[in-house]
Structure formats: structure tokens, C-alpha cells
Amino acid sequence: MQDAAFQRCIDPTCGYTLGIREYAFACPKCGELLDVVYDWPRLNPPRSLEDFDDLRADFRNPLNFSGVWRFRQLIPFAPENEIITRGEGQTQLRPGRHAADYVGVMPERFHLQYEGLNLSGSFKDNGMTGAFTHARMVGATRSACASTGNTSASMAAFASGTGLLEAIVFIGLGKIALGKLAQALDYGARTIQIEGDFDDAMARVQEVCRETGIYLMNSLNPFRLEGQKAIMFRVLEGLRWQVPDWIVVPGGNLGNSSAFGKAFAELHELGLIDRIPRIAIINAAGAPTLSNLVNDRGLAWNDGHVDNGTIEAYYDEMDRENIHACTIASAIGINRPVNLKKALRTLAITGGVVRTATDEQILDAKAIVGRDGIGCEPASGASVAGARLLRQEGVIAPDDTVVCILTGHQLKDPNATIWYHSMSAEASKAALEKYGVCSAGHANEPIRVANDIDEILRAIG
Ligand SMILES: *Cc1c(COP(=O)(O)O)cnc(C)c1O
Ligand SMILES: [Zn+2]
Predict the structure, then answer these.
(1) Each residue of 305-331: pLDDT tens digit?
(2) Partners of 7 in the β-ladder
(3) pTM, to two decimals
(4) Mutational pocket test of ligand 1: of 407, 409, 411, the residue with most ligand atoms within 8 Å of the beta carbon
(5) Which of 114, 120, 123 to mutate for ligand 1's pocket (most ligand atoms within 8 Å of CB)?
(6) Which residue, of 210, 263, 387, 404, is most buried by count of CB atoms within 10 Å of its CB?
(7) Contact 34/26 with Cβ under 8 angstroms?
(8) How far is CA 294 from CA 18, 80, 130, 302, 348, in A?
């Protein structure tokens, strides 16, 4: 008999299945993405979301302390004694008065889910705990990922922190924010800088893993997405199990948006929620693949029968015109998102929408979030910038409940922040102009004064 949890190809015309203790990062038959699928009645699912309130109160058990495994009944692919946790997911909803005003919604119905507080400083830890658990279940000894920086930071931290695996990181040359590179190096990962961009690194790491059997930790890995479902569980927990109207999330490789859609589909299937929030995925204008395919070319999930011709034609055009991702929000500077089809599924499940935000809009939004005392990296600002655009369009209503996901910590990319806030300096201006950023409307410039008490007193006003 099949396991109560197993893996299955997302293409309904293929439907190939693998056991939970098997490893393949793509369908062995057709090469499509894999899902983790549950036969729920055999898995003791919770009867009500309030059941989790008790677990939250019991932090002596490390599995309850984890903001992911507290919800293990909804991520039931591993026996408890095989779960790898490092206390990830200690994050929660926060208010943001300035950000709510900026978006144009009621402050009491506006929330920021600040994933920068994870142990490696981004939401990636939610997924890494899932993938490491699975890696242990299949006896992996080496792991690899391509990364714009946060996946590698998280993987390296888990690899060293657990001693389970050796970590090998592939990054594009010159494309990684300072803080993220610092992490991979400090955590002792073998770090390989490829002369190319993220999309190149992503292609090469798949070849490497196919050739060597090294365990792939990118979000192609369906166990990453299982862990990332917990971000949505915590959002609901923070809202006392009330479903919001909107979840707004930046879209890069589209793992998060894919995981969120799956989380809500499963909660709905289990009768734990009675409606599904709409998910807005925000691309950077300099890496707009999902937006272009969905909004301009009509690409849709279509019950799993996605029109591959449309995707291939788009990628061919990009190659012909030598188009590469270009955005200061480096974490979403991805033009060939590996989870594209799962993100289309999320849009179908949730009545979702896709928008793009320019780097200027992204950095402005990031600065506004800063005024609320929360530091996020540029990619995270995309969610707030996107919510504002959707509010201006009237797609988000002024009294909607809106949750913006802040995916990573401000200190990941100090350069971007400093450039924005000191744009009158020639070097900052030049750095930002490369990304088409011409003004910094919410800058807080440092004030330079002589070493003189009268001048200092004048400056502090
Ligand atoms: C990885 C990452 C993203 C993109 O998330 P996807 O799941 O790849 O769409 C956005 N922001 C930050 C900070 C990230 O690290
Ligand atoms: Zn298949």
C-alpha cells in the first residue's frame, strides 16, 4: 500500500508517484515539478485550528518551539524523531501604521509578516527545515543550491548547525548582496561563484545534482515548500484563525507563493477554513516573467494543462534579445522561475493577481516600512509597493484585511539602504541609476557637520 504521504508529479496527464523516502528533484518520468501529497484521513489531521493554541504555549518541546513544526499535523511527512529543527519561524504579524497609510488601508486591518527574524534572516529557514528533514530521511550527505543569497545562507547555516551535510553553494558573479555572501562564507559552505547570473547558476546546479546525486536544496524541492506553508499557518494564528482578504508576497523563484496556495488549498480541503484569501504576487519590473506571462499572454494553470508553448516562446525571446534580470531587489531578480507552474496553480486556487513594482517603488516602500521600526531588504519592499498599486487600482478595497510578507532582513543588503538614504552622494546616485532609480522620496539623509558644538546643536534642531 502507498504511504499516507507520498510525492506526485504535478502534471495530471503524468501523475507519476514516488515514495516519501525516495529522492528526485523532478519527476523521473516527465521532468515536471513534484508535490508532497497526503492521504489525510490516515494522518490524524487537526479538527480545528484552535487546537494549535495549546502547542504554542508549550515551548519545552523543540518541535513546538519551531514556528514550522508546531504545525506538524499539517506537514505530516516525517516521523517526529526524524525532524531537523533549529528553532526556525519565530515570527509573527506586526502592525505598520506608516505602511498602512502608504498602502491606503485601515491600520487595524493591515499586517506585516516579518520573516527577517528567522535565524538566518529570511523566510528561507521555514523551507530549509523541511528539506533538511527529508535529506536526513533519504540519507543525503551533500547538499547544493543556486542562490541569490538567502537560500545559500539558510542552507549553510542548517548544514553547519546540524552537522548533517556538507553544503555547496552556487551564486552568480557580483549578483549577491553583501550580508548574504558573508553568511555563506562564515557558515563554512563551499562557495562557487559562476560567471553568470542566478538563472545560469540554477541551470548548472541542476546538472551537477543530476550527475552526482547531491541533494538539491532549491525550492524545486517540494519539501522546502512544505515548510514554507507554515508562514501562512502563523499568519492565520496571528489573526486568531480569521482568514484575511489578501496575502501580498514578492515573487522570485515563486516557491513562497506556490507553498502559500498549497497551504490554503489543504486547509480548505480539511474544512479548517471556509474561504481562501486572494494572493497577490509582486514581481520586480526588472524580472517580470510571471507578470508578462499571466497578464500579457494569458498563461494560466488550466487544471494542470499549462500551455508549454507560451512559456517556451517567451524564454526563447528572452534569449534572442539577451534579456537578463535587472533589479536592486536581488532576491527576486529571477527570469526563469522554477516554480512557475505551481505559482499558476496558486493564482487559480486563490483568485490571485500578479503585478510588477519598479525599483524606485520598491525602495520607497522599504523606507516606509523602516519608519514602522521594521527593517527589510529590498525584495521585501515589493509586497508593500505592490499592495499600494493594487489599492490604487481599486483591486484591494480600503477596508480589506491585508497581510504583506516581509521576506528578509534589512541587514542582508546594507548597500541598498545606504544608497537610498544618501542619494545626493555621487556614488549612491550612480549605484541606483543603474536600476532606474532617480529619486528617493522617503530618504533620511545623514547630516554632516563640523566637529563643533554650536554646529551640532543647530543640526539636531
Ligand atoms: C527567496 C526570496 C524571495 C523570493 O521568494 P520565492 O519563493 O523565490 O519567490 C523574496 N525575498 C527574499 C528576501 C528572498 O530571500
Ligand atoms: Zn511527471
Answers:
(1) 999 999 999 999 999 999 999 999 999
(2) 18, 36
(3) 0.97
(4) 407
(5) 123
(6) 404
(7) yes
(8) 31, 40, 30, 12, 11
